[in-house]
Amino acid sequence: MRQTMNVKLCSCILVVLLANIVWTRNIRPIYDQTSSYDWSFYSFECPQQCFCPPGFPSALYCDSRELKEIPIIPARIWYLYLQNNLIETIRGESFANATQLKWINLSNNKLTSNGIEKGVFARLKNLLYLFLEDNELEEVPAPLPASLEQLRLARNKITTIPGEVFSNLENLTMLDLHHNKLLDSTLSDATFQGLSNLIQLNIAQNSLTRMPPIVPPNVMQLFLDNNSIEAIPENYFNAMLKLLFLRLNNNKLTDEGLPAKVFNISSLLDLQLSNNELTKVPAIGIHLEHLHLDNNRINSINGTQICPIPVPGDHVYDMDLPRLRYLRLDGNEIKPPIPFDLMLCFRLLQAIVI
Ligand SMILES: *[C@@H]1O[C@H](CO)[C@@H](O)[C@H](O)[C@H]1NC(C)=O
Ligand SMILES: *[C@@H]1O[C@H](CO)[C@@H](O)[C@H](O)[C@H]1NC(C)=O
Ligand SMILES: *[C@@H]1O[C@H](CO)[C@@H](O)[C@H](O)[C@H]1NC(C)=O
Ligand SMILES: *[C@@H]1O[C@H](CO)[C@@H](O)[C@H](O)[C@H]1NC(C)=O
Ligand SMILES: *[C@@H]1O[C@H](CO)[C@@H](O)[C@H](O)[C@H]1NC(C)=O
Ligand SMILES: *[C@@H]1O[C@H](CO)[C@@H](O)[C@H](O)[C@H]1NC(C)=O
């Protein structure tokens, strides 16, 4: 008896819900037809292709909707989600009133450099984050607003960086250009000039055979994996006093290409040189904590020679010891056992992979 009651009650609620849906579906086009202003009188203005969360009026969700064009963005929007669409072009009109925008995600669309109206981003004077990953751009868009803090351009087809496009970006902290088609000739001494607050520079998976000519001095993370870099110039890292992470995996570095003390960088904590053509362990600094040398051609290792300090005796303070904790040497031509002098030098080692 009770059970039947429940069933009846449930179907009543269901009917009411269904009726509601039908009602909302019908009512909206009526307002849209009269004029968009009428609709905004009842709610706030919202492009019909998008979702405007009622509790979060500064955000606009237009992602994953097969959009080919960007709608007119209302002036109140700060956060704009346009990722995972089929957008090919950006017209200035879309952003004419959206000058408060702080964050735009346009990743995974079909944007080409020709499709972007010149200057459309530069007019967004409050823009902090611009995400354009997984598009078909051939150039870094220019000009860009001086306010930018993050610019992500990974997985495009970029071969060209317009001169001085970065020169006014004093607040940019992260520049991601990985998986593009940058050549040595794309990068000049001036390319990254002006990026005085840049922390992360990612140029992995491009077509470089040389190190970038000049890297901004405050960079902490420099990623250059998956290029064809053969050598590093003498004193290359001398001006980079804050460098913490350096990745050069999957390049063509040889012993001859490395000046003797090039990796004796006092700030460096993490050095990755996997999949290169080294036959010797390069000299490292006393502060380095992680060293990846797997898949090279190293055939012997002499702990006394690679120790950044004279091999410490029995009585030594921990603080004076080399900081190395993790060492990868697998995929080389070294056979266990681990040389005893290596253990004497690097007493803080927690893991060594041979
Ligand atoms: C931007 O969109 C891409 C594609 O969906 C997503 O992977 C990424 O996490 C988004 N970025 C942010 C910061 O929301
Ligand atoms: C920008 O806002 C003004 C004033 O509200 C309005 O007249 C104009 O049509 C808007 N522009 C666009 C492109 O929506
Ligand atoms: C850079 O950031 C600082 C601190 O947030 C801010 O005062 C300054 O206006 C920003 N510069 C630009 C060009 O937006
Ligand atoms: C380098 O290339 C390998 C193989 O194509 C890929 O698995 C890896 O994710 C790439 N790494 C970077 C940092 O681009
Ligand atoms: C490494 O550099 C430091 C100063 O940064 C210096 O004291 C030390 O002698 C150098 N080590 C080698 C092996 O050149
Ligand atoms: C390692 O190098 C030191 C100093 O160059 C040398 O005295 C020692 O014999 C070498 N050790 C081995 C096992 O070759």
Automatic annotation (TrEMBL):
Keyword Glycoprotein carried by entry: yes
Compartment list: Secreted, Extracellular space, Extracellular matrix
Domain LRRNT: 45-79
Keywords annotated in UniProt: Disulfide bond, Extracellular matrix, Glycoprotein, Leucine-rich repeat, Repeat, Secreted, Signal
The UniProt record lists the keyword Disulfide bond: yes
SUPFAM superfamilies in UniProt: L domain-like (SSF52058)
Family annotation (PROSITE patterns): LRR
Leader sequence residues: 1-24
InterPro entries tied to this protein: Leu-rich_rpt, Leu-rich_rpt_typical-subtyp, LRR_dom_sf, LRRNT, SLRP
SMART domains in alphabetical order: LRR_BAC, LRR_TYP, LRRNT
Pfam families (UniProt xref): LRR_8, LRRNT
Family: Belongs to the small leucine-rich proteoglycan (SLRP) family. SLRP class II subfamily.
Annotated PANTHER family: AGAP008170-PA, KERATOCAN
Protein name from the UniProt record: Keratocan
Organism listed in the record: Gekko japonicus (Schlegel's Japanese gecko)
Gene name for this UniProt entry: KERA
